[in-house]
Fold these 2 entries.
Entry 1:
Amino acid sequence: MTAVDVHLFGASSPLGQAFREQLAREQGWGTLHCYGRSESGPTRLDLLHPDG
């Protein structure tokens, strides 16, 4: 599993959701979980690769 910290405004907004879905598609990750609902701070994204 790879953990990535990104600065993502409005992580729980539709735009934030679209960003996470696009990132998952581009990187080939099957599951992407987002933690944190801050509108300004870093949001932790745990990217789970299908291969483990």
Note: The chain is about 25% helix and 35% strand.
Entry 2:
Amino acid sequence: MLTERDIREQTDKGITYIKGFKLYENGSVLYIDTEGGEKDGSCCVSGTVEGSYGNEYDVSIALDENEEIEGYSCTCPAFETYPGMCKHCVALALEYLYSGEDAQGEEVFEDSPLEFREDRTDTELMDIVAAFSLRRRMKELTACGRIEIIPELQEISRYYYGNERNFMLTFKIGPEDGKQYVLKNISDFLGHVYREEMHSYGKQLAFVHSKNVFTETAWKYIELMEQAEKAARARYENLGKEMALTPELWDRFFEINQERSMEYASLTGHKGKLYFLKQDPPVRCRLCPEGEKGFQIKIPPLQLIRGKDRRYVKLQQNVYQCSDNFYAGAGEFLKLADEKKETSYHIARQDMPAFCGAVLPELDRLGISDKGNLDLGEFQPKDAEISFYLDEENGRVTLKTMGTYGDTAYNLLEPADFSGEYRDRTKEIRVQNMIRSYFSLEDIREELLYFESGDHDRMYHLLNTGISQFEAEGTVYATDRIKGRKLLKNPRIQVGVSIKSGLLELSVQSREFPPEELAGILESYRKKKKYHLLKSGSYIGLEENSLSTAAELLDGLGVSGKDFEGGTLNVPKFRACYVDQMLRQKDGQLQAERSSDYKALIRDMKNVEDSDYQEPENLRGVLREYQKFGF
């Protein structure tokens, strides 16, 4: 027999029943029809219900022979969105319940007799009662503790997401200090949260899933679930009871649980607490002798876990978030570990220099090695001795670079095999990068680098900084042809100044180059070149030295190379102050020789500076400052 309670239990939210009852009370059921099954006694109730805004919806309800609800449908949008009966289904069911007998295609009028209906409280007041009841329940939840989500981490044996061992999360939900229930379906739970629905998990837990009822930590887990569900939807999947911790989720999961603990179930079924610590793991890798054969390196049981951006180590009952420095240094080595037992690896005596040179320093630097009282002096690797061989032949400047370890030498252009005898990989790579910055071409057959002899920019670069850098890394061996290529970085320049025939006579001389080269040097300076190539094949640098200072002096006088034939130059006497000023500013960079008559001229000019002569009144506003000087 259909009852009001049966109808109420078909709704997902208590407020839906109240809204449906209000429609029924207001006479919103416009049409009702009942069709019965002749054999089994079941029936189908169909009708038309007017919504709150005047829309009409087609509604149907299926009843079995005992008048228990088997199904229902409605054309309203809410029916497709929310579970349970909508308010229009409730209104039609109540109309059928209180019509007294089966309706056969009858229209329902607002003035239909309602004497058979039991006395009921006004709908508006019932809405208030429902709202206050809900508020009271929310206060009860707050009184016993806000809603918490408690995770449990489980290890599984499936291989995916890049970790050899994967992890699953399951959750319980409930008040912090009350009874907690297993969360049976994560996707359904997120639906309740999204719609802020009332949902019951058991006799002692039912609440509206609004954000304010959850603790701060619980809400972080909800955000983690949403991230997992988004990824699941992309695979056309739903989340059930379990949620896999992918690398993308691990970083966020660790952030939530940093400096906290949680329940953990291992692959073997062992349960306990797991702690999450943001620090490098205190791993100790022991190096032990193994008779006359060699040595053993022993790695404790641990598990590497890959996150999206960070790496983690599970060691005993702790999960450590590794720093980038730690994982870069020890990550590859720790991949040799087994998560269940200590792992031992044999090192032959002949390979100990390679191990002591490449691996052990990194383990020592990170503080994860334990050598005990071992004396490893005899296994310390020999330093790499680098040799540079420079030559010039057949129009090429060539370089062959060798690295020597004891009695064994390697060409640094050979494909490096670092798996055998120890080689200082860091130093070799540094040297390779350095020499390639000076030599642009490679002769693979002869295993050397080179550039064309006519490439003066590279030759100057090599002479200026290259050879000195090579000498800082090793020993340089150069042929006579290379030694003949000289760079005059700071040639000694003598500047003479005198007065001859009423003009200033300047002479510029140097022992490093003949006077006729000065015109070309001056032209190179004006083109802002870094160097000038002499006819002898040597190079003169033009960057912040005495020659650049002399070129600056001549350039300021506005002279050309043709004016400087024979190494002397005549300029008007009024340029004497400029020349004197330049020589004083560049004192120490140029060796200046001033004649006595030139010195007397400069003294006279300075005396004029201190004179009391005044410019004429009619010219005072016309003359510029330098014209007033000495008037």
Note: The radius of gyration is 47 Å.
